Amino acid sequence: MRIGIDAHAIGTQIGGNETYIRQLLRGLHMVAPETEVMALVHADQHGAPGVGEGFPTYPLPVRSSWLRVPFALPWIAHKEKLDLIQVQYSAPPYSPCPYIVALHDMVWIRFPETLPAIDRYRLTWLGKGTVRRARRVFVLTEAMKREAQAFYGAPAEKIDVVSPAVDAIYRPLDDPEELANARAKYGLPGEYILYVGALQPRKNLVRLAHAFARLKDRGLPHKLVFTGKKTFFGPIAEAIESLHLGDRLILTDYVETEDLPRLMCASSAFAYVSLYEGFGIPVVEALACGAPTVTSTDPTMVEVSGGVAETCDPLSVDAIEAGLVKALTDDAFRRRCREEGPKWAGRYSLENMGKAALEGYQKALRQTAWA
């Protein structure tokens, strides 16, 4: 079984997509190291230590998705005699071997206005045919499985839930010196509310900032910290600037992965009230650290937070404010996150992810094409 995995996201520092691919490779190597897996990566990542997470890498000859998907992937599949290839979102019109498509979200359907027009049209144009021709469809949650059935008419028996894994680095940390050093590295105060993820409209950061701005009137001294790449950040920045938060808002830009659990554990609360997610792994990572966590009532967020985090209507600034106040002041809730969060997050393991993916590959190679 020779499998090629489109791992172009590795090295891009694009949040969840890169995390998912890295964890998938680690999980597969944990449960089936003998499987012939090849990670297809950008040329500047090929051969770098650890990039393939134990598997060999193969350099993609182009960076553009417009060329990678229709031309580079089938060429590599033919040249390397692959039995199966895993693509992300869209597949080549022609492939010399069967493929699995991994859908990390369906934002181009649910919130198309939050994507650049060129990406929106590409995904809309190619998505339905990609799902129809795929041997299997990988999704991240049961909520996404329902979406794939509703939007594409994909039969339930064709869809596999392959949820991301939470890295072992995400765990409760209580060494005061370690946490203080992490805060100092990024210029953070002793009390802050943390957001981790891309800075883009779908993440609902403007409403989060509005809700946070009201906390000052409640006598809460915390600052709001946004980490992540500034993707489509212009309109968000303009809206947030109108709130005149000044130094109460801190933008750290990209944070090194090994520092994220330290910042989560050092935070007073973690907030991730996204309008829509395919998974929203920062929420589970924060729970794994025992951080008091506030998220949204999006079906995926409710599913992955397991009743531990506080959920609130992402369209209501009042509801988000109430969630933040609870996370900062309700001792029983804070204790629940600290005690139950790591237990809940434990189900999202590398082993479970690797087993789910491997079973999907085996099913894909056993079956014939879907009608």
Please describe what this structure looks like.
The chain is an alpha/beta fold. It folds into two domains: 181 residues, Rossmann fold, CATH 3.40.50; 170 residues, Rossmann fold (3-Layer(aba) Sandwich). It is 43% helix and 16% strand. It has a seven-stranded parallel β-sheet, with helices on both faces. Helix 1 crosses helix 14. The longest helix has 17 residues. The protein is globular and about 65 Å long.
Estimated radius of gyration: 21 Å
The helix tally amounts to: 14
Main beta sheet strand tally, sense and closure: 7 strands, parallel
CATH class of the largest domain: Alpha Beta
Domain count, please report it.
Answer: 2
Q: Percent of residues in beta strands? A: 15-25%
The largest beta-sheet arranges its strands as 3-2-1-4-5-6-7
Class by SSE composition: alpha/beta
Fourth-level CATH superfamily of the largest domain: Glycogen Phosphorylase B
Features:
14 helices; Rossmann fold; 371 residues; six-stranded parallel sheet; seven-stranded parallel sheet; alpha/beta; single chain
